[in-house]
Structures are given as structure tokens and as C-alpha cells.
Amino acid sequence: ESYLDYPYGPNEMRAERVQTALRAWGQETFNTLLGQGQARDYYRDATRNGHGQLQLVIASDAPRVLSWPWEALHDPQLGDLAQHCRIERQLDTIADPLPLHKGLSRERVGILLVTARPYQGDVAYRSISRPLVELIHSEGLPAEVKVLRPPSFEQLRRELEEHRGAYHIVHFDGHGGFGQMGAGGADKFKGPQGQLVFEKDDGSQEAITGAQLSQLLREYRIPIAVLNACQSAMINEQADDAFASVATALLRAGVRSVVAMGYSLYVSGARQFLPAFYRQLFLTGSVADATRGGRQAMFLHPQRRGEIQLQDWLVPVLYQQDPLQLEFAKQPSTQQQALAPTPKPESKIPESARVEASGAPHGVIGRDSAVLELERASRRAPAALLLHGLGGVGKTTLARGYIEWLAHTQGLPGKVIWQSFADVRSFGYVRNRLVEEIFGTDAMALPDEKKWTALLQALRSQALLIVWDNFESASGAADAGVDSALPREERQALKQFLEQLRESKTKVLITSRSDEAWLGTTACYRIALGGLQGEERQALAQAILADQGLHLDAKDEDSAKLIDSLKGHPLMMRAILPRLGSINAKQLRQDFEQYVPQADSDDPVEQRLYATLRYIEEGLPADLKPLLYPIGLHEGYIYTTFLADMAKEAQLPFTTEQAQQALERLEVAGLVRRLGKNVYEMHPALARYARHQGARLLADAEDASAWEQGFVAIMAQLADHCAPKALHEQRPVFHIYGGSFERALGMAQRASDLQAYGALMQALANYALNRRDFPLAAMRFEAYARNCEQLGREDLAAAPYHQLGRVAQERRNLAMAEAWYCKALEIFERQGNVESAASCYHQLGTVAAERRKFETAENWYRKSLEIKEHQGNHQGAAMTYHQLGIVAHERRIFEAADAWYRKALEIFERQRDEHGAASTYQQLSRLAEERLNVEVVEEERNFEAAEAWCRKALEIFERQGNEHDAASCYGQLGNLALARPNLDMADAWYRKALAIFERRGNEHDTANSYHNLGRVAEARLDFDVAEVWYHKSMGIEERQDNEHGAAITYHRLGRVALAHKPPDLEAADAWNRKALEIFERHNDEHNAAISRDALQRLQQIAKCDDEGPAQTRASG
């Protein structure tokens, strides 16, 4: 069993003797049992059509008989029988197993994987489980694998209790043994017994006997157990009974099939056995056939370490008693085929958190010890798990691989949030992104205290995984290569945030080149990530060389030295090893290591990383080397055309073709990754090197300044272009260039380039405004305005004043919004900037409309429209037509509203402005709904038109990911369902809208949803419930000073008061008078008339009450 530790000399001779003895025993036993007499005739009859259907069953209760190596039976005419037929053991005197659990799936095989690694220097954590998981995932097998976390016996009990009937197979991957139990306890006087080694919660070992495990699996009726644990099927003549081994103990407990190991089995042998076992299990549904398939794979691939071969295929043994046939696993059932495909586990992973996003062509190779450490660390108290190591060592790739592993083994939390710190400038930005991810965009508009409290509560109570990638970019590690880090107070706030999450359900996985000592130990658990080791290095090297059609010769000393010199660093290996296609290993190592002494570091790995990058630099043509400097100015992503545009701005002689050539050469070295359309993602190690070393490559020192000016100019042009776009159009641009915008902004500010600074700052502020991050938007607009004021440029300051009005209006501070618009307008008018003045007129119109001053609003709109039409600004005119439609709509001039909407829509559709068109479709739906109450003859047609317009808008909003406007459509569909009336459908639409508004913290629309749910309850005559909803709505409306909205709710409360049994006439009268006073003040004659009618009816009812109860009852 320890043969491979020293397979030479006496051990080799002993191995040969064992093999000879086994062959002799197998042949002699075959001849004795099946080679003569009537048994031979039976055997020949059974195998007349081949051995594929032959099943040999060894049934006995004698430990001595069960311990014999039956898998070694050898037919002289055929060979080893175990390679051709089914061989299994059985017990003679044993009760029938209990019936299967009623809930056991007939669609997918449930596998619970227990992987225990309690020892230092243990077998690689995923050496067995990963091939199994990848097999099921890659071939789409009908199975679900869950890894038991932690792999303790107590957790196994909890898992089986909480998921009764979920698992067909419990698969134990770990250590086992057979021997005397320790002294003490009930096992004190027993002979040798089988054991499995689980882990305790702290990761230390916990030996569990077969008897203990069998009692547990019997209780939960597990039909199949797979034990790739050494000696899990071992039994010898000294055993007290046939149930001494783990395998036989499980069989006695009612487990129907037990696959176990009769002796110790090397991991490399298990790697051959288990994937073949499971593949055959899903092909045939038979555990016996699967076991034979696994043995065949071991027989065909006998190499266990290097070129050393073992005949260990007879180690796996099978015990069965009334086995379960998994025939349903062989092919999809009719029911499965009729259903939609089962969502893949990785569908829950955001794109940025997937392994493919790392651009690592060979995925995650090895790293089992790091994955195990991450899993254990996730069960500790600190919220942060810090992966730290050199740039290019694979921290980000490992983080993504860890997430994928959790997804494929049912360990992934409910939500994964990936945040890159490359463009982070404040902790508030980080928190707002978390708020946006968890609660939605609208929630960012809530007061900070309310946001942060809700965020902490959600993170503490919900299982989430947050990833902070490239953390050194914000924390200020010395080698981060960034212009600035988070200020000290921001870092302290971040640290405090992590400390507040201690012992919460949320974990924060951080990747950094630094160990971030300032985070301390209570907030953070650190895992140092070095280079790949041993077989992992060899595996990656072979994968890299295979891409070049090369083969790694493990015996070649020069190749071994070259690989060792790269320290298992993936980036260095991907950059250097492909050169073996044109240069020998010895020369390549010499060429590469000549740059090691030039590195400004004492760390040998850092020295070699520098040498790698310098070697790649030297391999570039001389005319392309200077392009490293402008490449390094970017953050994260580069576009080849922009490099050429930057060169044109800088008046430097570089073309798009040269930029493309440089990036293609860097791509070959693994330093950039092409994403399509000449956009490349840059490795952080290249960015750092280019920023530190790029200036050395320039022909003239002044070229650096010229390149920076060109970079700022191009980024400013791009930012200015996307600033006025809708959010769904801005998102992809800011995803790729947001970090570069931030870098360019800092450069523009230092260079006092006010024009570029303004374009960049306003674009970043507009993006924040569109994302409803109002504090950040206001901060950016205010910063730009101050800068303009300090330089005496009020002409430029007017633009941020106008945008600050938009921020205030979104916050429903109409007085402040009006003040900002007027301040901007005064400047625009004085400067003769009629186009910008028209925008101010338009916004002042929206403020007046929200105040229900429709005549004033119409005047502002017409003033704006006159300029827009005169200038041929069709898009701007369409927006104003739309608003004039809303004014006519509110005034209940439906024909005029319809005409304005259609005039706007014609332009939106012609200019392919989907968002503008969808907003108008939604208004046309509301208009058709309003007409239901006044055009009875056309009722059905109006219903159909209202629903058609609304669904047309909804399709666009959902496709654009515009959840806020989609929720408004859900509310509108609820209105239409209520009008039909279909109360259940209305209730469902309103609740769907409400869930979004509440999650996003949008109180205004939340109040509307509460009001609408009150209308549904009122229609159901459930007046108590209706009153609760109306009071919830009223509380928000009054708090937000939304008088008109509150008045509509007062009127509904008056209706409910009247509908109570007995009616509360006094309350009904008070509510209606309160509503009427507001409607009259707001010149809302339509609703005022409804309130007056209600008050007249109340007077009539009160008069009837005065005349007597009989008349009151009659009128009622």
C-alpha cells in the first residue's frame, strides 16, 4: 500500500510476488469453482452469448470468505473476470432493506458528497470531487451534487434530516481504516472494525465507525453509498462478524449498494475509477455495471505516478442487497422533455464573476488547498476573506473559480455581487453600489442613515457573497500603480463596515496584491496565494504547451529548470513557455533571467515577474515599444482606435494598425484579452508595469505630456457623447471606460483643462443621476460648479446649476429645483444661449406641472417648444409634446392629449428612441383607461387599446432592464384589471409593482401601490383591509408634502367610512371636506366635483337619519 513511496529494490520484488500470488489464487479458485463438473456447465451456459450479462455473487456470512480477493478470479480462456462481468458480494442472513423514501426523485440523481481532509499535507481537496462535478456539469447528466459543508458527522445528520428523500447516493471521499478501536466505550471489547475519518467543525479529525454511520443512513433510507476511503471494505479473519467493515455494516443497515475499497487506493487510481463509474451509472442505471466500468478504466490506465504501473483495479469492491436500478437516469423522461431545461447553476453568477471573465484560457488549474481554506474561512467569524499575492498569480481567477465551484456543488449563497475597486474613489460609492444591487436603483435616493441601516441589516441576515476585486487599487498598496488611494477616513469607514459584518451571513471575498495589514484580524482572515506547486505546475505547463502542439518532457532537466524558475506563477508561465516552440528551454531561461537583477525588489518571485514583463517588452518591435506608455494610461480596457486618436491629438506618428499590432503581441503573451470590436481587457500587472516603465521607452520626455493630453481629450469626447444618453445606453460604456474616465478626470484637473474636466465630470454626474445616486450626482455637479466659479466662468457654471435642479426635483424638493433652474436660466438668457434656455423652460414646466399649476406649465412648455422647433431640435420638441400631452391629460382634455402624445410618438419612433416611445405608449394606455369612464359605447375597444399600449411599453422597459418603468406598467395593468373588474389579477399586478418599488426604496410609487391595493380590498368589500392600505399610503403622501395624492386618499377613506356597518358619517364628512379643500386649491375640478357629490349624498343620508330609522333603512 505504500509501494509508490519507494518502488525499487525489495519493494519491487515483493510487489511482483504479490501479483504472482494473486494471479495464481485467481486462476486456481476459478478452476476449483467454475472450471470443472456441473459448475463449469452452468458457467458455459451463462456465458454462451458473452460475459456482459454474467453476474457472479459471493454470498456468505463468514468474514474469512468475504475478505478473499474475488475480483482476481481469472478465466484462462478469457482473462480477469472482473473486467468482463459483474462481481459483487452479498450477506447470507440479512433482513430485507426498508422501503425507499417516498420523496426520492425519479428525475434526477441526488448525490451528497462528503469530502474530509483533516490532515496537514492531505490529499488535494478536490482531487476526486472535481472530476465528478465537472463530468456531471459538462455532459449535462441528470444529477445534482451537493458538497457537505462542513464535512462533519453531525452536519451529515442535519443535512439528511433537513432534506429527507433528496439523496440517492452518499459519497464519502476521505480516509478510512480497519483495525482495533481505541480503549473505552462500548467498543472496548470488540475486534477490529472499519472506520471513516470525518472532520469536526474546526477541521480536526473525527473517526466514525461503520456501525455509527450505518445507523444514520438506515434512518434516512439512503439506497447507495460510495466510499473512496482506504480499507472501507476491508475485513479479515480476526473480525468478530461479517459486519465489521464499513461496507458490510452499511449493507446490514439497509443500504442497497455499497461501493468501497478493499485496500488502500492511490488518489490517481480513484481519479480513473470514479468518473468512469459515474459515467457508466448514467449509461446503464446499474451500480454493478458502473463498478465494472470503473475497474476497466483503472485497468486501461494503470500509470499511477510517472511511468509506474499498478494492477490496483481489484481494490474497489461492491456489496449489494436488493439493489436500486437507476434506469430513469439513462435518458430524459417524457416529463423532463416536456419541461423547460433546468437552469444551470452558473446562471446565478453575474457575468463579471464567471471564470470566462478572467480570460484565463485554461481555467482554474489546481488551487485545491486554497479552495479548502476559503471554504473553512467562510465558516469563521471575520466577514472578509482576503486572497493576497503578486499580480498575475491568479487571485481573480481563483475567486471566480471558487464561485463556480460553489455553484456546481450547491454551496453558492443566494446572491453574488462582484465589485472591481479599479475605479473606486470613495467608500460611499461602494456602499451605494451594494444598495443598488440589493434594493434597486431607486433605493439610492433614500436618506443615507436609512440606506445604511437597511444595508447592514440585509447583509447580516441574508447569505450573500460580495467580491472586492483589485482591492489594492483603492487601499493604496505601494505597487498598485494608481494615482491616489482612499483617504484615511474612508478606509476607516470601510474597516468599520467589515467589523460590523463580523459573524454575519454575508462574506466579502477580497483580492489584493497587499496583505492589507490595516484591516486588522477581527475584520479579515488572510490567505496568501503563491505559485502553483508540484503536479499543478506540470498540469498548467502541459496545457500551455499543448496549445502550441508541444509536449512537456518531464524528464528533460532544462525544461524542469525553466518551469521551476517561473515559480508556478501562471502569468509568467503563460508569457514565457509558448516561446519553447522556437527556442530551447536552456536558452529561453538564460534570455529571461538576464533581467532578474534589474528588478527593484528583493522578492525572488517579484524579480522574475519583472523579468517576464521586461522580456516581453524586449520582444516588441522597436517602433511599437512606445505604445506601452499610452496603454498604461487606461484603466482596465483599451480600444485600438482610441490609441490612434490619442496619437493624432498628441501629434505623434502612430496608426490604428500599429496599435492593433502591439495589442495582438501583448495578447499572445497573455497580458491583454480581446473582447471583440478591437476592445482589449488589460491585465493589472501590465498596467502597473506600463505606468512605471513606459516613460523610459518614449523618444522624447515631452511625449509623455502629449500622450496624457491626448488621453484626456479622447476620454472627454467619449464621456461628452454618452452624457445625455439613457441609462441602458450608458451602462456598457461606463462598464468599460468608467475607470479611464476617472483617471482622465484627475489628469484634467491637475492640468487645469476646464473643458475636458467639465465634460468628464458632467458625464460621471449624469450617470450617477440616471442611476438615482443623488448624493454622488449632487457632489459631482457641485464640485464642477465650484471649479467654474473659482475660475470666473459662470457661462460654464450654468450647466451644473441646471443639473442640480434635476437632482433636487428627483428628490421632490421642488422649491430648490426651481431655484437652481432659475439661476441657470438667468445666465443662459444673458449669454444668449437659447438652446440651454429652452431646456430650462422645459424643466420649469415640469416643476409647475408637479405643483398642478397647469397653465404656468403650459406657458413654460410653449416657450421651450418655440425655440426647439425653430432650431429643428426634433428630439427635444418630442419631449415637450409629450409633456404638453400630460398637461392636457390632467386637465381631462383627452382629444388634445391624444394629439400631443401621437405627435411625440411619431418623432420617437422615427428616431428609434425606444425609451421615449415606451414612455408615450404608457401615457396612451393611461389615456385609454381614463376614457373608459366617459366613453361607455367604446368601452371594450378602449380596454383593448389600453392594454395593447401598456404591453408595448412593458416589452421595451423589460428588454432594457428598466425595472422602475416596468413596475409602473405593472401598476397600469393592475388598473386595467381592476376596471374590468378582475380583482385577483389586479391584486397580483399591484403586488408585483409594489415589490419592486419597496425594494428600490421608491416611496412615492410605493404610496400609489398601497392606495391601489386599498382599492382592490374596497372592491372586495373588505373595508377594514382597505382602510389599512389607505392609511399606509396617506402616511407617505403627507410626509412627502404630496397634497394632491393625499387628497385622493382622503376621499377613498371617506368612502370606506361610509361603507362601514354602521356607517361613520362624521368621519366620512371630515375626510371628504379635507379632500375637497385641496382639490379646489389645486383647481382639480374633476375630483372636486366627485367630493361635492359625496358630501351631498352624506347630507341626504344624515337627513334620512333625522327623519327616522325606517326611512334610513329604506334608503340604505
From TrEMBL:
Residues 331-358 are annotated as: Disordered. Residues 345-354 have a biased composition (Basic and acidic residues). Signal peptide: none annotated. Residues 52-305 form the CHAT domain. Residues 385-546 form the NACHT domain. TPR repeats lie at residues 838-871. The keyword Iron does not apply. PROSITE patterns: TPR. SUPFAM superfamilies: P-loop containing nucleoside triphosphate hydrolases (SSF52540), TPR-like (SSF48452). It comes from the Bacteria. Keywords: Repeat, TPR repeat. It holds the Pfam family TPR_12. PANTHER family: NEPHROCYSTIN-3 (PTHR45641:SF19), TETRATRICOPEPTIDE REPEAT PROTEIN (AFU_ORTHOLOGUE AFUA_6G03870) (PTHR45641). This is CHAT domain-containing protein. It comes from Candidatus Accumulibacter meliphilus.
